[in-house]
Amino acid sequence: MHHWTSLAAAVALLANGAVGQNMLRFACSQLVVDRVDPLVNPGVRYTPHLHQIVGGDSFNLTMEPVQYDLAKRSKCTSCSFVQDKSNYWTAVMFFKHKNGSYHRVPQVGNGGPQGRLINDGGLDVYYIPSGRVTAFKPGFRMLAGNAANTDDSKVARGNICHRCWTSTNDNNFIGGAPCTGDDTVGIPQDPKCKMIRQTIIFPTCWDGKNLDSPDHKSHVAYGQGSGANGGGTCPSSHPVKLPQVMYELMWNVTNFADRNMWPSSGPAFVYSMNLGGSAAHGDYVFGWEGDSLQRAMDNGCNLNRDCPAAGLTSQPPEKYNACKIKQQAPEPVDGWLKAMPMGEMAIKA
């Protein structure tokens, strides 16, 4: 087992009380698993593929930018910071059985030097500053990745990657910093993997004008370099430095290790677009209360701890785990399914 470097080393130092780069790192449990996407397919039920959504419970089919105030409309959040009513979502990973049926791969919390973050599904969210950053504005939204991409070479491995985790203990970190070493764009297809860690890193540079763009990408850009380092120098077209948002997911593939279950050809693990890691993507809609995120960045708030200087309060797992909403496109998403939820409503196998 190798030791973490870069970001993980910084987290380890912080957890041990050493001076280092402060960053928010906190758990978000599953709010719902649903075939809706208010960013790419607003107002549509049974969108082309399934997502797992976390964050504020005001998540809806259609959330008009600015007018739809997530922070005011949400009564609870499935994230550990009470003040964060943002919504974060990703595609869902499925295991394909050799008999043609599919099973959704569950997610688990991710541990580390600060101790395990407890999730009921969902993911861990990072906000990593690099120097002085400008927090997102109400109505801000963005997309990382391309849900239709089938070419691994078109993905920057330093921003979207997967890691085979050979331990069932999420506290036994394996490998270096996110999206380094043996990490791959593709989903690992190896029965030795007990968990698969997925990392999605968002752009850190903003044009300073547009809260969104038609492709949900053009108003932001990646800085020089890549990786979980807060982002590099911004281009002149996008001069405003943002906090680096990173999603970290642990897909628990332990129950699918029996090679006798695997298909004779093709991948065993795919995302809900029926595509591989090249199509991995993440959606982000900002919804922090007031200027709490800006104050968190300015005051060096750290990990998932209360931060009085910014008015941040962290709620216990039993509180954020209890924040749920009903599917807005009702269909079965658990157990063995005859097909992945695509097109018409899914049915049980």
Automatic annotation (TrEMBL):
Residues 1-20 form the signal peptide. Residues 37-288 form the DUF1996 domain. The keyword Signal applies. InterPro entries: DUF1996. It holds the Pfam family DUF1996. Keywords: Signal. This is DUF1996 domain-containing protein.
